[in-house]
Each structure stands twice: as C-alpha cells, then as structure tokens.
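This is your field. Please look over both lines of this record.
***
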Amino acid sequence: MLMLEHRGAMTHRHPAGRRPGQVSGSPEQAVLDLQRSAGNRAVAALLAGSRPTVQRYQVQDCGSGAGAAHPASAVYAAHGRARTMLSIAETESATPSDPTVRALARKYFKLTVPAMTNRDKRLWFGRVRQVLAGMSRGQDGTTYECEPRQSWKDGLCTEGTMAVTLLNIHLCPAWWKLTSVDDRAFVLLHEWAHKYGPSVHQIFETYCDASEFATQPAEDLVAEPDAYASYIFELVTGSAPSSTVC
C-alpha cells in the first residue's frame, strides 16, 4: 500500500484572476470564479443539481430513518462530492498549461501536456479528456444499491470489495467503513470511470496500490479506473488518495 497523506479539505492552488486561455463569461470561468470568491460549499451547491437515484429493494435498502446502517443521505453526500471533484477536474484539464495538470498528467497517465507528439495528443484528447467527459455526462443517471452483506451473493461484494459496477453500482458494506466523504467519493469516481468512461477497463484492471500500476505504459494507464480517480482526487484536493482507498 502507498502510505500517502490524505487531506480532506478541497484546496485551489491558483492565484486570483483569470488564467490564460479562459474566456470571460464562460461556464468554466464562472465555476472557478465562484470557487475563489464563495468557496467550495457554494461550488458544491451550484453543481449538485438533482440527487442521484438510490435503488431501494427489500433487504438492500439505503435507509432513510434515524440510525439507519446505510443511510441514503450519505450516498447523496458522497455523490455530490464526487460530482464536484469531477466538474472541477474536467474544467482545469481544459487548461493544459496549468502546472498542476501537467504534473498529474505525467504522474497518473505518463503523458506530457500540453501535448506535442501525435501519441500524447491521441491519448490526452482522444482518451483522457473523453473519459472525463463521459463520466461527467453519465454520473447523474447513476443508480446505487446498498448491499446488506459482504458476500458475492450480494452484488458480488467479495471480501475487501467496496463497490461493484454491474447494471447499477453496488455499494458494499466495506464502502460504509470509509469515514471520509472524500474517500467515499474516490470509490464512486472509480466506478463512474468503469461505467461511463469509453475505453476504460470493465473487468480486468490494476489497482493503484499494486506495484505493477506505476510500471504500466501510458497506453494502459488511460484504461485504468484508478488512474482517473487518483488524477481527479489529487487535482482537486492537493493530496494523493489515502492508503485506505489506494
């Protein structure tokens, strides 16, 4: 496991003022200006929109009452946080001259941005940016199922599994053991990459805590869900994912 510091608060690392390449009055600039002037809570409220659908089955309910083991409100909170992270990351990734974007593109995808070679252009614009856009388009149509037991019989929640993407996203009991909303959001980002990211691995994958992860070439990393979740997480929070999830 990578032993990395985790910081829960979302930070923005750019000085006040418009960055090169951003158009006054654009939606992207509006989001960044709002974040600077009003803070992350205002950005979250702006981007949260409608709540995700929480699928309720008999013994797989996401509870709504006081003291519920798997409260739907916690799913809403994690979804909202993941949605905000994704929106900010997608916006900032449109400015490849940003030093943080450049550093994290190298770290998680082994790509040089601004892309100069045909290979980097193909992988950055044709894969990474397309996956981020696909995740953004799809995430609000997500249906979650809260599984009652850590068992393959319940949403394929095998031992240690936090979530599984099938037709819906199944939240396993291990997901509820995460105490940080950011960590829970990281898992949702991983599953969104599976479900909505074109050309992202659906079955076979390498997790970010595996020694093989860092040795993969760019062509493989752009298909790894953990590469996207880690890139988004660190771009927004300023810290790498914690060892709890990576």
Summary: The two ends are 7 Å apart (CA to CA).
